[in-house]
Amino acid sequence: MTLHTQTIHELRAQLRRSKVSAREVTQALLDRIAALDRKLKAYIWLNRDDALAQAEAIDRTGAAKDGKPLAGVPIAIKDLINVEGQPCTCASKILQGYVAPYDAFVIRQLREAGAVLLGRTNMDEFAMGSSTENSSWGVTRNPWDLERIPGGSSGGSAAAVAADEAIAAIGTDTGGSIRQPAALCGCVGLKPTYGRVSRYGLVAFASSLDQIGPFTKDVEDCAILLGVLAGHDVKDSTSVAQAVPDYTRALGKSVKGLRVGIPKEYFIAGTDREVAAAVRGAIQKLQSLGAEIVELSLPHTEYAVAVYYLIATAEASANLARFDGVRYGLRVAGDDPIEMYRRTRGAGFGPEVKRRIILGTYALSAGYYDAYYLKAQKARTLIRRDFEKAFEKCDVIVTPTSPTAAFKAGEKMDDPLQMYLSDVFTLSVNLAGICGISIPCGFTTRPKLPIGLQIMGKPFGEEMILRVAHAYEQATEWHLQRPNL
Amino acid sequence: MSEKTSDIDISYVAYLARLGLTEAEAAQFSAQLKDILKAVEKLNELDVTNVEPTAHAVPLTNVLRKDEVQPSIASADVMRNAPQQARGLFIVPKIVEQG
Amino acid sequence: MQYEAIIGLETHVQVKTASKMFCGCATDFGAPPNTQVCPVCLGYPGSLPVMNEEAVRKTILAGLMLGCDIARLCKWDRKNYFYPDMPKNYQISQYDMPLCRGGGVDIKLKDSREVRIGLTRIHLEEDVAKNSHFETTSGVDFNRAGLPLMEVVSEPEIKSPDEAFAYLTALKEILVSGGVSDCDMEKGQLRCDCNVSVRPVGQKEFGAKIEIKNMNTISGVRRALAYEIPRQIVALEKGEKISQETRRWDDAPGVTSVMRTKEYAHDYRYFPEPDLMPVVVSDAMLAQIRELLPELPEAKRQRFMQQYGLPEYDAGVLVTDAALAAYYEQAVRWSKNPKSISNWVTTELLGKLAEAKLTIAECPIAPPQLAELVTLIDGGQISGKIGKDVFAEMFTTGKSPSAIVKDKSLAQVSDTAAIEAFVDEAIAKNPKSVMDFKAGNQAAINFLKGQVMKLSKGKVNPQMAGEILLRKLRGS
Question: Total structural domains in chain B?
């Protein structure tokens, strides 16, 4: 039996019956990482000794038998989430040397659930990017084709799960950073409704858009992990005090009679032919399972990229101001504080982060605020209303996750605008604050690369999108395919 | 906003953001940002009169906490991350008062 | 040419709370540097602010006391600027939707005229850290970072350094009386920026605005303005042009000097704080806060004069401190002589407290005990003179006055026979004075009365002693 290929629900059964120990599972994952990660580079920091110690503690206390939902399950964490005593670099030189003095809310939840924290995964610096190429610590490779990128910004988490280097992983999604890499790596990734999961301890990129969510090998695991991450947190004022359902109870239900919305703006030229075909096929599959297909329109979709890049960069320009060399992280000396700031930030941030700070600062600066930032916030309202109206006619909305499958490393690095356009189908979900999931729905032929299906749901409609995702997954076998590594 | 997009004052914006840029970076960003701003001009097509701006993705109000003291974090944890420190203070280059 | 000054004040007042504005760190003054800090107030990556309810309520209370319109919907914004004392390099403040607008502070001018200095707004923001400076470096202590800070912005309606002084004094009195802030200037709890310009009398346009930054005493504000206004007038008279700038006040030499000129004007890039939700002030919340409204010092002064028949001076002394006024009113509840209680409180009690360096809250004499002392004197059980000794004893021991009078046998002698015996003794011992009185020297009786008091060790009722003495001298 290979332990690293197991899902959470498979492992859980064996750990509960003591067929395998948590230590064995963790060791199996560490071995897999040792064998593979030199070429994949999914991890940027490994918690080797401590992970084994955590696993041993699980075995000792019998946490698995106590029914803790993730007892002994090794999980990888995106390098953007604070874990006490561990580095948290956000893949940036500017946080070199920083040791987190506290646990993020989701880390406390994971520890409470008995998860083993394996290590920290690679990402685009401060989550700014769609390919994980904007990391200060090297480029992560797509497990299906090492010439290609895994998507981003949570590319390390997606690659780790797809390559069986973690049973599951945690990522963050500001404009598609969970769903897009999940699609490109062929795993399941869910962005929860804004306010569903506490952001406390997540290093902010764009505060009004960021959410933490799970990467898993199948939909059942996604439901299990989401149940652990979700919950109200008094330390996050944007966290919503709504009870967390048992998401696994949404699984196994039929989609018969459910209305599946198909927005015409997401089925346009520019989408790769094979991607479009796979998504069409998935829609037919849902129809064959009894779902009703509803054609609809989200008329402001074409403005989403502009709105997103103004709002996200404006918020980021303030969020990243704290990296100044005074209290933590990198410092490059200067004769006065201003000089020190400019040098520290000049040396510490990579090009994409600098570009976005400049754009965001500009959008907020005197004379431009109304034309850029305020206008974007108003357009955001229009996008939100599009979804409110659409969800009067349907239960979920189905689209491609990304217009293309994984592209080659370096292909879009010199053209930030083209890179931004690869998030065109995912951004609106963050702008509207709703939930979305990406699940495998096919492959391109030459080369063989995964294609993702995005299912969007109403605010706090996670049970509904999991139900539809699960029904589709159980009727197909895409999720069972593994890259040849 | 169209007439303004061509003349983004990159050195002023970089100064506001306290971001040291090399000349090459400044030149490259200027060109790229011009393209991005051009794409953003698409918003001009929209009529947003009487549309309320969205600042938050969830409609919560009055998220308040009780005035209760919680433990602070240990001094050692605070100072472990300090690039430069002395006598419990974070040390920076001398501040020339600017207000 | 005649010139006039136009002054507007921005006063930063630390709102009195146990914990900071956005985290649970304590607000205690004087803790070792960087010991009252956490990821939130240090601006650590990933930390988030959560609003302290008490800071909001107290700012609304201040607004109600100052007659402001309270916003029914307010929000917080990020004010972006880099400075080593700013943990996040943005300050969470309120830009276009502050908690309070309008209102005013009533001040009394030297010629007894009363004027109201209007307020523009009051908003709630977070304080920054404290810098200290060394030879080539500066040190930052974040204990103060994140304390709740109210910014009270006045209209440009103040016309002189004395008016500025009166405005700040009255503002402080009001905020202290409501428990909104201690306004302890030594602890930096009240700091002030002044905007001041001068113009020829009759000119409509304002002169160029000079900002004087960060003064931390009320008298310092008066001195700075008393320096700055003539400086500007002299410059104008010399034909110089005054341009907008920020100056700093140096207290020791007593001068202002340039800090920065307009070209460094900030571009704060305000935008709505995404990490904090707006606050809706409901009718219920407002009603609840209204119940906490203390009587304003001026209203209380008027009431004390009417209700207790006190002279303006007494009433004025009693209301300066809300706790002292409360002490007085408690004592009066047990007494029929409010004026006498006022005399004891404003002279003896305040004197003793000052001597012992105690606050009214630490006063060893309970209000009912003070009332009892006054009753003993008014009822003739002890003399006023003995009363002072009893008071001193009460202050040191905390015992009740009746117990002290009993223990020390200090009760006044009002028994006619006993007084007659002292009178007889005094007459017998002082024949010369008796002769003087009989010869028509009326003053001699005072000496004899003094002797009676002396013989009785001050315990006889002086009025009765006088009457008996007179009767005996006339009769014999």
Answer: 1
